[in-house]
Amino acid sequence: MIKKHYSYYNPQDGKYYVDKPYSLRDNKVSPSASTKIPLKNTADRAFKIPVFLSHPSMLNTTQTRFLNRLIDEIERVLLFPRTLPDTEQYPNKTITSVRRMILSSYGLIAVNMQQVFANYTMTNIPGGTPPPPSWEGAPFLQIEPSMGYQRGLPLLLIKESGVNSIGVWNPSVVPFFIIEWDSTKPLDEFFDRVEWREIFQNWVAQVRNGYFIQTQPSYRYGPDDL
């Protein structure tokens, strides 16, 4: 029977330790071969399917709480929400970085929140009637969902009540449903709604289905279930 002693380094106290001798025939794994915490965290993140989370960068307390709760909901179904520049950034201009994120994600979820309150006073037509005052969202909340739609990603759009419905946030323009969040009500009231759970789970299923389709090998040598 062959026996060996294994030593390993503990980064917490900066000391080296020697394990008890064990047989090479034994199936037990040495403590020195155990996964380190940073690698474990990386593995946990890598296991999740990456999705693009589009949201404004200027948030108040209520909006921050909503976004944090949304991130928890996404991670709970083993999806990894990515956003610029919080989780990653590239040495490119912003629009190029967004395109890179779109091309390397398998779904997109966008949250259009109140940013500035606009009081319109005139139009480009003399004597024209300006639109009523309303909240405006962030400009990139028009760009990123549009790029995701062009890519063909599964989209889930959430709009805070009061934000004007223009561009991709106009229900009469886009071919998908936009769910509305009322920031004056408790968070649980939104996330416990049957409407939200149904739309969210349907989006998750589309993301996973797209992930498995896009990661199939290009060279097919047998049935699809191989």
Could you tell me the CATH topology label of the largest domain: Rossmann fold
Number of helices: 6
Residues in helices, as a percent range: 25-40%
- How much is the radius of gyration in Å? 24 Å
Q: In terms of per-residue confidence, which ranges show pLDDT below 50 for 5 or more consecutive residues? A: 1-9, 20-37
Distance between the termini: 41 Å
Helix and strand string, N-terminal first? EEEEHEHEHEEEHEEHH
Shape: globular
CATH architectural designation of the largest domain: 3-Layer(aba) Sandwich
Q: What is the CATH top level name of the largest domain?
A: Alpha Beta
Q: How large a portion of the residues is in β-strands, by DSSP E?
A: 15-25%
- Mean pLDDT across all residues, rounded? 81
How many individual β-strands? 11
Number of domains: 2
Biggest sheet overview = 5 strands, parallel
Q: What is the SS-derived class?
A: alpha/beta
Question: How are the strands of the biggest sheet laid out side by side?
Answer: 6-5-7-10-11
